[in-house]
Amino acid sequence: MIVQMKKYATEKEIKKLVDFLTERGFSVKDISSEEIKMFGVVGDTMNLNVSHIEAFEGVYKVHKIQKTYRLASRDYKKEDTIIKVKEGLTIGGGSFQIIAGPCAVEDKETMIEIAENLRDNNVKMIRGGVFKPRTSPYSFQGLGIAGLKMLKEVADKYNLVVVTEVISPEQVDLIKDYVDIYQVGTRNMQNYPLLKVLGAQKKPVIIKRGMSATIEEWLLSAEYVLEGGNPNVILCERGIRTFERYTRNTLDITAVLAVKELSHLPVMVDPSHASGKYEMIEKLSLASLVVGADGIMVEIHPHPEKAYSDGAQSLKLHKFNSLVKEVNRLKKVL
Ligand code: PEP
Ligand code: MN
């Protein structure tokens, strides 16, 4: 950490700050230039509160150098984390996995049709929301626990893994026997009580990037779950909100590269929510593969025009078949 002093900071002000830091075990070195008076603070500055230091008289600005997250960082763990979802099924470390399914669980027939399609495409993970965090209270809110039981029944029949969104801490206990991977949605990336409860679980947690979250804030959300004792965290870039309205969101493909650099955690891409347009999903999926994402999460539906939610960004099943084929073709040449 570097503490930059005001040009006319007094000796007394400087001494007060240096004493405060040294008393707490930090070593403080004067690294001033002719122009700028500043000090390097060495030690575990993770828990040092920047605004406390900036509140000292004579301090101009504090520059933090140490990362604000520890367990999620590549400095903490050099090798990629590979998450075991079940025997023979992992996420991370070079494999490119696909999670697919409808935005929301609607009825059993639709789920069976989708599950059969996944089986035929050798896709192992089915998604489906039953607690839908909708922007409008008048929109379909999901079938709740009854829908989850339906999803689990179909998933078991086709040997698929269940991925579903959880939106409150109390739900975790209620749904834990029916879920293989918990999904934390964009609207709940900063639901810290929820992240804490998921930190006490063993099953993997996918954390979608908050709509307006920086990469650092996103990694700090992962840190909550890791710090709670659950090492099985997967990140998912799902587009961020920008000034552009042509697409639903803006897919920040650079975030995949950034996360790979900064963290050892797997990172997937959701091209459905990123674009809001089914026509873009295949190409964005291939782009995700090229930049080194660990997989994609895609919305699919046999009849998108009848879907209760997100139909416009759901692939018809034959289009999903083509996506899987193209992904496999590209995998071979990468
Ligand atoms: C979803 O996956 O259906 C969903 C609501 O996603 P997000 O949280 O990314 O909007
Ligand atoms: Mn959706």
Q: Can you walk me through this structure?
A:
With 334 residues, the protein is an alpha/beta fold. The chain has two domains: 2-63, 2-Layer Sandwich (Alpha-Beta Plaits), CATH 3.30.70; 83-331, Aldolase class I (TIM Barrel, Alpha-Beta Barrel). 36% of the residues lie in helices and 18% in strands. It is built from eleven helices and 14 strands. The strands form three sheets. Strands 13-12-11-10-9-8-7-14 form an eight-stranded parallel beta sheet. A hairpin with a 2-residue loop joins strand 5 and strand 6. Helix 10 packs parallel to helix 11 (317-333). The chain is elongated. It starts with a strand and ends with a helix. Bound molecules: phosphoenolpyruvate and manganese (II) ion. Phosphoenolpyruvate is lined by residues 103, 129, 185-187, 208, 238, 270, 273.
Topology of helices and strands:
Blueprint: E1 2-5, H1 11-23, E2 27-30, E3 38-42, H2 50-54, E4 59-63, E5 83-86, E6 89-91, E7 97-101, H3 108-120, E8 125-127, H4 144-157, E9 161-165, H5 169-175, E10 181-184, H6 192-199, E11 205-208, H7 215-227, E12 233-237, H8 253-262, E13 267-269, H9 271-275, H10 278-291, E14 295-299, H11 317-333
Parallel strand pairs: 7-8, 7-14, 8-9, 9-10, 10-11, 11-12, 12-13
Antiparallel strand pairs: 1-3, 1-4, 2-3, 5-6
Helix pairs in contact: 3-4, 6-7, 10-11
